[in-house]
Amino acid sequence: MKNQFDYLVVGSGIAGLTFALKAARNGSVAIVTKKDKVETSTNYAQGGIASVFGGDDSFQLHIEDTLRSGDGLCHPDIVDLVVKNGPERIRELLDLGVSFNRAETAPDQFDLGREGGHSRNRILHSQDMTGRAIEKVLIVAAEENPNITIFEDHTVLDLIIQHRSLRSGSTSLYKQDVCRGAYILDISRKEIHTFIANAVLMCTGGAGKVYLYTSNPDVATGDGLAIAYRAGASLANLEFVQFHPTCLYHPQAKNFLISEAVRGEGGKLIDRRGNAFMEKYHPLKDLAFRDIVARAIDTEMKSSGDDCVFLDISHRNADFIRQRFPNIYEKCKSLGIDITTDPLPVVPAAHYMCGGILTDPKGQTTIQNLYALGECACTGLHGANRLASNSLLEAMVFADAAAAECSSNIEEWRNRTLPEVPDLSTRIDQNAVSNNEMVLVAHNWDIIRRLMWNYVGIVRTDRRLSLALNHIAQIRMEIGEHMPQIPLNSDVLELQGLALVAELIIRCAMQRKESRGLHYNLDHAQKDDAAWLKDTIVTKYPGEQFLSAVGFRPDEPICDPPPVLSFQHR
Ligand code: SIN
User: Fold this and answer.
1) 290 is catalytic
2) Alpha helices per DSSP H over 261-325
């Protein structure tokens, strides 16, 4: 089936929905999402949205905190844009019906929380389920909008790219390529459909599942990064993977985050003997920047041999804890831990990808009419370490900018004369190959995640990184060999993307011969501003070769040639 829309939005979290609601004012929007529409990272965001509303706060302070957290790699113009747009974007959420907690003593003001690295209280929150409150409201608005169609259980195979020759003398790779839509797998019907669109918006979220331990939901497999890279878009700063310091350590607590807001309300990190340890590592103690707290916990665990550390908020009033953190309280209680009386066991886990698909201030990637918004994008806001609770804000600000840009271009795009896109819509032939080899998919999935955790984690070394690269090359070759034996399905696609993203993270980490923000390498333990105050840009092929490739081909080999890595000064 061939579908035609003005906009194809891939992903149904805050970035995709915010864009869709704005773009639907003057065009038709398809939102494709690979599982249930609310199964997004947004839905699990506990902490909140950072923005300047406090009487003692200012844009300048929020900007300074963001820059300090980013450790030299934030783009100041982008930080300025995002911070100053914050209050307006928050008001739009309020108008849609999202409710944030209000101060008990002054109900006309927000109850602003504190998280690591913020010098003022500035986190708007809906108890400890802020993302859920936002997602719910945005989904209802999208479902009620006649210009928006949501396709659940649909996943992108590849983007449809029209390749155009570069003007002679141009040094800009791919800028002439245009995205025309995507080939999409309807997972339940086992059919491939062709979606044509004037603009495609990648809003696919993060890649936490590349790591064995993560706070992310199962959908966070980095698909958007892999898809954009395969299409020829540039990616940036993939070495900066943020590990959240505190995920619940319990065999039945898959991916359960303990919000930094718990430390914001006075929670203390302690070791097994009850000793608080953060003062050894940073003057801001438990509210130091996230990279520092995660590394401190890693150091404590390695030196003590303990499996976890503990977070203790039991000194606060029990009613307050239950009211402020109902979700965390209930989850811990269901596992036999009462956080009003006992410290809870925690470990760091992969949480947020600070790098992603390279974009300009309008969310435009290096391919025309292809945009990236939210966690899958690298806009320049986060630098080497994202400041807590800046990401929902970033998603809304860039969705707004992209929607404004697209709306101003849509008439011109509709009037373009473009060549016909080949319709590859088809049913997947289930009889062609056997399904017996799914064990290979499960096995490779597991090895990649362990490899990344052990060799490309919070603390890295040159040797571990180079071993990881050898292993991942081997695994990707094996995946290439057994893919043809397995009918096309979403698990295989996710594995293929996950392996590619893992390789790109390793390659980016190997290039950066210094330690900065979230990238910490024992063999290059110092920060080196003279040499490394740069973004890491990774792009697929050297120019011309790619110009002959066309869209998705079911028989295309999945082992790409090694990527071309280049570094670009800010
Ligand atoms: C948290 O609640 O600790 C997560 C907030 C964030 O990652 O921005």
Assistant:
1) yes
2) 261-264, 290-304, 318-324
Whole-number percent of the chain with pLDDT over 70 = 91
pLDDT at 14 over 70: yes
Q: Residue 183: which of 200, 153, 159, 163 has the closest Cα?
A: 159
- pLDDT averaged over the chain? 90
Strand partners, 360: none
Find the mean pLDDT for residues 443-468: 96
Instruction: State the pLDDT at residue 298.
Output: 94
User: Does residue 431 carry a pLDDT above 70?
Assistant: no
Flag whether the pTM goes above 0.90.
Answer: yes
State the catalytic residue, choosing from 122, 263, 290, 386. Answer: 290
Ligand 1 touching residue 388 (CB < 6 A): yes
Q: Which amino acid is at 262?
A: V
The DSSP secondary-structure symbol of 460 reads B
Q: What percentage of the chain carries pLDDT values higher than 90?
A: 78
Whole-number pLDDT of residue 150: 97
- Banded model confidence at residue 568, pLDDT cuts 50, 70, 90: low
Q: What is the DSSP string of 132-190?
A: HHHHHHHHHHHHH-TTEEEETTEEEEEEEEE--PPPTT---SSTT-EEEEEEEEETTTT
> Among positive and negative, which fits the CA dihedral 471, 474, 480, 484?
negative
Residue among 46, 216, 286 to mutate when testing ligand 1 (max atoms within 8 A of CB)? 46
Cβ–ligand 1 contact at 395 (below 6 Å): no
Q: Residue 382 C-alpha to ligand 1 middle, in angstroms?
A: 14
Q: Report whether 190 contacts 428 (CB < 8 A).
A: yes
- Domains defined for the chain, CATH in brackets: 2-240+354-415 (3.50.50.60), 243-348 (3.90.700.10), 428-532 (1.20.58.100)
Q: Is 348 in the pocket of ligand 1 (CB under 6 A)?
A: no
